[in-house]
Amino acid sequence: RPATTGMDNTADLAYNPDAPPKRPRGDGYFESYEYVGIHEEMLKCRRTDAYLHAIERLSPLLKGKAVLDVGCGTGILAIACAKAGARVVYAVEASAMALHADTIVNRNGWAATVKVFHGRMEEVQLPEQVDAIVSEWMGVFLLYEAMLDSVLLARDRWLRPGGLMLPRRARLWLCPLRA
């Protein structure tokens, strides 16, 4: 385990936890999520409250289950899933915010349940299939944060048949305008 990260990167991971995440975009995308300010805005967003409420409502379905949080950011949804009774939560974050998420998880006493991984979803190898996936992947105009591909890959690779996706659907309403 690298002493510099404080992360729970166990030996059963296929990726190298000492290597920085690959960033093929080359546009500073992951780096833009390394700063607390952007996460403060997301935490204040009403969507976060909606996710927390949904996780609380779905707690009977999460109890004793393995959950994956794709793009965990600060780890708030991962901790909510742990509070809802998940057996284990794998919280994956590609940006250096993973280091903060790991600290938040540890200081709030959830390290036994929430395992934070610093890496891209496309590269992380989880120790097991999961029963549920949670991800706050929506941005401006629904697709702005460009995380949907990672969430769909996680679903196809890691979600058990019949598993739960949160959210499981989204709608985009468009209205043509003429200026």
From TrEMBL:
- Give an example GO biological process: methylation
Could you list this entry's UniProt keywords, alphabetically sorted: Methyltransferase, S-adenosyl-L-methionine, Transferase
The record's region (Disordered) falls at 1-26
Q: Which Gene3D superfamilies does the UniProt record give?
A: Vaccinia Virus protein VP39
Q: What is one Pfam family matched by this protein?
A: PrmA
Source domain of life is: Eukaryota
Output the Gene Ontology terms for molecular function.
histone methyltransferase activity; protein-arginine N-methyltransferase activity
Q: Give a yes or no for keyword Transferase in this entry.
A: yes
Do the record's keywords include Transferase? yes
Kindly give the InterPro entries that the UniProt entry links to this protein. Answer: Arg_MeTrfase (IPR025799), SAM-dependent_MTases_sf (IPR029063)
Stated name of the protein: Methyltransferase domain-containing protein
Instruction: Give the source species.
Output: Calcidiscus leptoporus
